[in-house]
Amino acid sequence: MRISEVPKKTWVIPVFTGSDVTKQELLPDSKDFEANIVNFGKGVRNKFHAHACDQILIVTAGEGIVATEEEEKVVKVGDVIYFPAGEKHWHGATKESEFSHIYVTRKDSTTTLLED
Predict the structure, then answer these.
(1) pLDDT value for 8
(2) Is 4 helix (H, G, I), strand (E, B) or coil?
(3) Which of 14, 88, 92, 99 is deepest in the core (most CB within 10 A)?
(4) Would you state the pLDDT for residue 21?
(5) Per-residue CA distances from 84 to 43, 52, 104 (Å)
(6) Distance between CA 1 and CA 40 in Å, rounded?
(7) Angstrom distance (rounded) from CA 58 to CA 79
(8) Whole-angstrom distance, CA of residue 40 vs CA of residue 92
(9) In Å, how far from its chain's centre is CA 61?
(10) How confident is residue 34, by pLDDT bands cut at 50, 70 and 90?
(11) Domain range annotation of the chain
């Protein structure tokens, strides 16, 4: 598959701070893994949340921010981010840039929203 050929689907769910978000499904038939590209419009991020399993992010476009309760870091294309299971975090675009990343989690994992 070529990422440029994977359709972008609007993805509006309560975890995001805005509606300018799309998702591209990379492994729709996998029994074990969830792998998608999330595309954030400028300034859009997700709210603090935690996953029941580890999460990996791979930055594919733009400039973003990843944050835990202790720190925030600016990330760019090629950066790989690891969040261990249960770690409270958020990630999204800077105010000046759109942002895209691939995320990988286990298919059966749950996400707990930790911010209103």
Answers:
(1) 97
(2) helix
(3) 99
(4) 98
(5) 25, 9, 12
(6) 22
(7) 6
(8) 6
(9) 12
(10) very high
(11) 3-107
Q: What is the pLDDT of residue 116?
A: 83
Instruction: Give me the mean pLDDT over the 47-65 stretch.
Output: 98
Condensed to tens digits (0 to 9), the pLDDT of residues 8-20 reads: 999 999 999 999 9
| CA distances, 63 to each of 51, 58, 74 (Å) | 23, 12, 7
DSSP-assigned letters across all residues of 45-94: BBPSEEESS-EEEEEEEEEEEEEESS-EEEEETT-EEEE-TT--EEEEE-
**pLDDT of 1 higher than 90:** no
Superfamily of domain 3-107: Jelly Rolls (2.60.120.10)
With beta carbons less than 8 A apart as the criterion, state whether 21 and 44 touch.
yes
CA angle 20, 65, 29 (to 5 degrees): 60
